[in-house]
Amino acid sequence: MLKELFAKSKKKYATVPLDREKQDVPEGIMTKCPGCKKIMYTKELVKNKKVCLHCGFHHSMSSHERIECLFDAGSFKEFDKEMISVNPLGFPDYLDKLEKDKKKAKINEAVVTGVGTINGHQVSTAIMDSNFRMGSMGSVVGEKITRAIERAGELKIPFIIFTASGGARMQEGVLSLMQMAKTSAALKMFSNEGGLIISIMTHPTTGGVSASFASLGDINLAEPGALIGFAGRRIIEQTIHEELPEDFQTAEFLMKHGQLDAVVKRTELEETLTTILKIHAPGGERS
């Protein structure tokens, strides 16, 4: 009798299996914010351009997500999509890692380039993607950005670049570092022709990218909280034997010290860029 009662009570108060709990909430339906630790529906986060609804934390965005939320529907035409990196130095497993990144990020390289319109204003653009090799700059990245700059010159339209990078790609050695000079030279030529360059630095923009094309805009903008700098914080502190400010190398720190023109929330970027493009258009609005 006691055994039967125990069996019944055990069945009555049995907990739901862990596997079943997981099935009740499909993977990806909720997102936890790294900033405030609050949980929200992923659809709501995406609708708000992946900016936290509670604390304003700017979540990472892929290149195609940026295109979708900024450019006029159906206006973006991608160029040089089939350009892919090779292994000029014979670096071990480099090609295998590139193939894995292609599948994970669903792009062929760490930058997507093309031409599109923002509220009717045509621009040439290069959008770096940290999902591919941490947005590192290799030969193909440098070449695609250079071609996008030259395309802007040919079409007489502004050039906008979104940067997100860990710096130069070590697997390509000095060939990667050469892209700093190549892209900078292309920007200088474009600028000499009267071209407008807008750089938008996102998290993170570091290393050789921050020391070259990312910082050469006529107008330099950044997203809130973005890490922007050349060397790492620890290396700098060890070199100068001083403790750095807590907000060192953030977009807000750079703004405070005159290295940026503005820190712009992602939700306000379209309006900001539209205003800039209107002002700099031939016969543009200046009031």
UniProtKB/TrEMBL annotation:
Source organism of the structure: Peribacillus muralis
Which compartments is it annotated to reside in?
Cytoplasm
Whether ATP-binding counts among this entry's keywords is yes
Phylogenetic placement of the source organism: Bacteria, Bacillati, Bacillota, Bacilli, Bacillales
Cited Pfam families: Carboxyl_trans, Zn_ribbon_ACC
- Which coenzyme or cofactor does it need? Zn(2+)
What top-tier enzyme class does this entry carry?
A: transferase
Q: Does the keyword Zinc apply?
A: yes
| Annotated protein name in UniProt | Acetyl-coenzyme A carboxylase carboxyl transferase subunit beta
Entry's EC annotation: 2.1.3.15
Instruction: Print the keywords alphabetically.
Output: ATP-binding, Cytoplasm, Fatty acid biosynthesis, Fatty acid metabolism, Lipid biosynthesis, Lipid metabolism, Metal-binding, Nucleotide-binding, Transferase, Zinc, Zinc-finger
Q: Name one GO molecular function term.
A: carboxyl- or carbamoyltransferase activity
